[in-house]
Amino acid sequence: MAGVITPCKITVEFSEFNLNGAGDGYSHNLYIGHVDTLVFRYNYSHHCKIGHELKSRANVNYILYNRFSNEASGTASRELDIPNGGLTVVMGNVIQQGINGTNSGIIGYGLEGLTNTSAHNFYLINNTIVNEKTAGTFVAIQNGTALYKGYNNIFAGTGTLLTGTTTVLDTLKNKNYSIAAAGFVNSATYDYHLLPACSAINSSTPAGTASNGYVLTPSKEYMHPANQVSKTIQGVLDIGAFEYVSPTFIREQKVTDAVLYVSNETLVIKTQENISCVKIFDITGKLILTERTKQEIPVSNFVSGIYIVSIITEKGNTINRKVIID
Q1: Domain with residues 258-325, CATH architecture
Q2: Please, which residues have CB within 8 angstroms of residue 181's CB and are 6 or more apart in sequence?
Q3: I need a labelling partner for 158 at 20 to 30 A (CA). Which of 16, 103, 138, 319 fits?
Q4: How big is the CA angle at 185 (ends 180 and 189), to the nearest 5 degrees?
């Protein structure tokens, strides 16, 4: 996409890419050329044919809160390839390599030469990266990379965590588990949310900022498919892409009339008092969504099931209602 164009900033969000590629190894699910900046967020890229799930030659890359996955039958090469380096932030992503991937490497940085003009600084922050192959490399960087900063990532499965040399190597609070021992809700269905006993909970360390001032603290989470949800932090930020949120009991301060119903894939809320905030929890108590002042909330991306809707009014009253979304 785009070839060589400067100045140029490309933003890709809320999108799904799959089954692209000619099987020649040179075509990919999405291929970004030599542009100034790529912002790639809230996307689902999967099942590329031989090529990479995302390849970007952009000078600066922000790759945030996405899902890249081969799953059971995908034959993609790398899940993420940044072949010419440059300042790159990869944060809050779910990255999975399946057993049929054609390249045992998952993430590549600068492997075709560090030719971009921005600082060759690679930041890998709060991602969940899963390798289902029996061997492989989670992260491969080009020798001579200026900085590799890897904080608060979960590496699940077998493989070498990092290959390549860097002038500055800064890694803290990364977890390396077998997939079975990682403490995921259900790795067989690619649900890498954390179980209550997972040692990644409340275990991270602040990652600070990138060299250009970009804050390296995740504020959102990927929500499947191709969506996002605000991150709710309880205690210390958890390691990985997802925050464990304990089941929540909310006391109603005052009984106030409220009517809730779903119509045309939209949750409609009618109350006597003005709404300050709406929080939606799943049946386990996990916070799914927070909205401010809205009385109509799209729910087309919600999984069918029972949800608890907590409405906080401008007068400080709390109304809790159960709603079924199907």
Answers
A1: Sandwich (2.60)
A2: none
A3: 16
A4: 85
Residue type, 44: Y
Token pair 């949310």 is at which residue? 193
The two structure tokens encoding residue 132: 């289902």
- Hey, where are the domains in the chain? 9-230, 258-325
How far apart (Å, rounded) are the C-alpha atoms in residues 44 and 71? 12
Strand pairing report for 94-97 and 191-194: unpaired
CB proximity list for 133: less than 8 A, separation 6 or greater: 97, 98, 99, 101, 104, 157, 158, 159
Closest CA to 211 of 88, 38, 51: 88
For 12, 34, 143, the CA distances from 15, given in Å and listed in that order, are: 7, 21, 33
User: Tokens 């300050």 correspond to what residue?
Assistant: 276
Q: Whats the size of the chain, residue-wise? A: 326
Rounded to whole angstroms, how far apart are CA atoms 51 and 19? 10
pLDDT tens digits, 168-219: 999 999 999 999 999 998 999 999 999 999 999 999 999 999 999 999 999 9
Query: How does pLDDT run across 282-312, given as a tens digit for each residue?
Result: 877 788 898 887 789 999 999 988 888 888 8
Q: What is the mean pLDDT of residues 143-159?
A: 99
DSSP 237: P
